[in-house]
Structures are given as structure tokens and as C-alpha cells.
Amino acid sequence: MYDFDITLVFFNSRLHNPFLSIIKHLGDKCKICVWVAPYFKAGRTKKTNQLFLEYCKELGATVIKGQEITTKLVFVTHMTALNKDYLEKEILSYIRCDKKLSIQAFGITGHKSHKALLQAGFKKHIVFDKSLYDSILKEEDRYLLDSLEVLEMGNIISSYPVFEDFNCDYMIAIPTGLSFETETSIYLFLRNLLKFLNRVGKNDNIIIKLHTARDNEPPFRVGRLFNLFSRDNFFWKVAGNVLLFTNFLFINLPLKNKKVRDSITGAMYRKVLGRCVPLSQIHDHWNFGAELFMPGIRKGLITGRSSVVWFALTQKVPVFNCDAERRYFKTKYLNNHFDHYGVPFYDDNLDFDRQHWKRVPATNGKFDLIKFILSEVASCVNN
Questions:
Q1: Handedness of CA 253, 258, 263, 266 (dihedral sign)
Q2: 178, 212 in Cβ contact below 8 A?
Q3: What distances in angstroms separate CA 21 from CA 47, 340, 369, one per listed residue?
Q4: For 16-35, what is each residue's pLDDT tens digit?
Q5: How far apart are the first and last CA of the chain?
Q6: Whole-number CA gyration radius for the chain
Q7: Is 223 exposed, middle or buried (0-12, 13-18, 19+ CB in 10 A)?
Q8: How many alpha carbons fall within 13 Å on the CB side of residue 18?
Q9: What is the pTM assigned to this prediction?
């Protein structure tokens, strides 16, 4: 039977970015296992998952699937799909451990899945931001605060970076489709994004990164006309430029006609790509989480309403929000997130208000996850 100091249970690459910091900065001190659990959404990012696991090996971890092991610590990421039977039959029945700890998937709190962690014997729960955790915890789940020791790790990736060789002036992080209330929202976002790009320095290095929900995630799910007008060939460039000039003269036309709006949206996206370098062209791990690349951004993150804003603010990266909408109606629970760490629409103002950095915990907080893990491992030595 395999024996380890630390076991990190793997479901889906986009849930586990902190694992890479743990492996990179503890791999020379501890025997680390990444134990692959069966997960129903894993097929959405099959290629990225494999790349993630290969990188875990490169950093020094052992990757195991479906085999029995012993370990001092086991870390399970809290996500909404967890239940007691799944935890006990599909994971813990294979893993004999001294201590069980859970790590929050960003923004996830409460629900039956949190109760399942308690039922399965988890006592310590590690979250990114205690204040955010408390603000989105539902009343019926507040009993958890009496049963769990909640520890705030802040932005471990900032304190313990992974891709230390990456840098750029600006990064555009395309938000998830959930962030856009309507197809008109996408048009308005790209219009604002183009205005921003036209104002930054021509020599500034700008990287664009797509969202990571699926392998090769399309930037926007708008339709055929968007795809045609975003093409980089002579005919569609000319046709797109004509549309953009017409749009300049009749600025509200796309808001009234879907076909025109989709076409102009595609033409604007082509313009955006013409000013940027896709992360996929310069980095092998481009489809990993955007937060892994935050430490290398010099001048600012350009995005909309996205959780990556929190990661940027914790390490004092200016954030320029190109989404002027103020409230979510399609996904109302995200309003609590935006109220906590969202930044206002930049509105042609390139002077970032540094007061926004104070809305999130500092990266050098009192709790250091790496040192905490080492102390937990040491406490198991004589058990």
C-alpha cells in the first residue's frame, strides 16, 4: 500500500488551483499524492485535467487513481456535488488517514454538501476569504460555524506562486458566460473593452485568456454570424470594418437587431484579438485558472464580473471592469460576490482607485497555509 504525508483529492482541474502551490512549495519536504476521484463533470475538461495531472507529476507529486493508500493528511475540495455516500464510498474507503481537511472551491458555502463533510468527519475547513464566506452563508447553514474550524488562507497563489516565469503588462480575462445577462451584454462588454484598449499604451504587452469551464471554451456563445465576422481573413475584415463604421454612425442599431448585433460583436472581437496575444500561443498551461497567472501582471487585469477580480485585488493588481451592468438577475447569488469584491465599471477612467484593494484580505495574512500543512503533518508523526 502506498504511504504519503499529504493527499490532495482531485475532481476537476478548475477546482484545484491551490494544489499547484502546495505541491510546488512542499514537494521537496513531503510525500504528496494527487488521488483522482470519479467526478461526473470531469469530461468537460478532459484534456486540461490530464495536463493538470501531468504538471502535478512534474512538480513532484504522485498521481494515483482508484488504489488504496495511507496518508497523514487528506484534503478534499468542497463543491456542491459532494454527499456523504460519495465521500465515504468513492473516496475515503480507499484512503486511510490521520486527519481530514477540506478546502473551499471559491465562493462555495453551505448546502447539503457542507453537511456531508461534517458527517464524514471533517473538522477544519479552509476558505479563501472569511468575510466573503460569512456573507454568503445562508441562515440555515450557520450551524456550520459551531461545528467547523474555519481558517482563512487568503490568496495562496500570490504568496506561493506557480508560474514564476510568466509576465505581461495587462491580461484580459474573458468572464464566464454566466456573467452576461443577455447577448446584448456581450456586445456592450466588447465595445467597452475596445475603448479601453484604444487608450492604453501601444507598446503595452496585452495577453488575452479565455474562460476554463470546458476544453477549448468558446469566448462567447453568440452564434454563426459572430463566428464569421471574428475570422481573420480579408473579406470578413472588410465587411466587419464597414459594420463597425456604420455602428459608429448609428450607435444604437445593434441593440435593436440581433443579426446586426451578432455581426458587429464578432467584428469587435476580431479587433480585440488584433491588439492582444492569446495566452494559448505563449504558455503550455493556458487553460489553467487565470489566478495562477496573476503574480506576473504588471499594470492591470481587464475583465468583467468574475471571481478572478478577487485574486487580482488580494495582490494589489489594478482591475478594470468593462462590464457596466450593476446587478445580476439571471444568477442572483452572484450579486453577493460582486458586492464584496467587485469593482465599478471603469468608465474611461484609467486611474484605478486603490481603496478597492482594502476590500479583500491581504496576501500576507496571519494564516500561512504552507506552514499550517507542515505543522499538521508534524503533529501526525507519532500517531
A1: positive
A2: no
A3: 21, 25, 10
A4: 999 999 999 999 999 999 99
A5: 18
A6: 22
A7: middle
A8: 25
A9: 0.91
